[in-house]
Design brief:
- The protein is about 40% helix and about 15% strand.
- The strands form 2 sheets. Strands 1-2-3 form a 3-stranded antiparallel β-sheet, covered by helices on one side. Strands 4-5 form a two-stranded parallel sheet.
- α3 packs across α4.
- β1 and β2 form a beta hairpin.
């Protein structure tokens, strides 16, 4: 499993059957030449995302987990860049408003951090709660999209020539 670097720390990526199957932060050193096309695409897309040049990901994703976990992951994947939701809203969207803790547990088991944006899910009071990569990374991911959107709004109509 290759380990790549990112502005937030090293990330382990792996694929299975032609799909991205894992993306997790790690303390391990970067290593491994990437030969797998899905992982090469993932690395490139992550670099573009962290550089503020990409808002969505389009690599094939292979989700394991239970039916409930997959439903939660797909629901959180619908939260667009620049927006957030809460664990409660996801549980309500799934038709089970009492499943807030189960939703939190499913989000905590997200195997594909960053790409499946669990960092966009907040506590009901808007607080940053839980993140498998650490709250410091969740905070940085949350603030990076704000900066990206600010740049986009402020500079989109400028015609700057050297």
């Amino acid at each position: 499993m290759p380990i790549i670097s990112s502005p937030l720390g090293n990330i382990r990526i792996s694929s299975r059957e032609g799909c991205l199957s894992e993306l997790k932060f790690t303390e391990e050193d970067t290593d491994g030449e990437i030969l797998d096309q899905v992982l090469l695409s993932t690395k490139q897309q992550l670099e573009e995302y962290f550089a503020g040049k990409r808002k969505t990901f389009d690599m094939p994703i292979g989700l394991g987990g239970t039916d409930f976990q997959r439903k939660v992951w797909l629901a959180m994947n619908q939260v667009p860049l620049g927006q957030t939701t809460t664990y409660m809203k996801i549980s309500q969207k799934l038709g089970n408003p009492g499943a807030i803790r189960a939703v939190g547990a499913a989000i905590g088991a997200n195997p594909i951090l960053v790409v499946l944006p669990c960092h966009r899910v907040l506590g009901s009071d808007g607080s940053l709660t839980g993140y498998a990569g650490g709250l410091d990374k969740k905070k940085k991911l949350s603030s990076s999209w704000k900066a990206m959107l600010f740049r986009e709004v402020c500079f989109r109509d400028l015609d700057i020539r050297s």
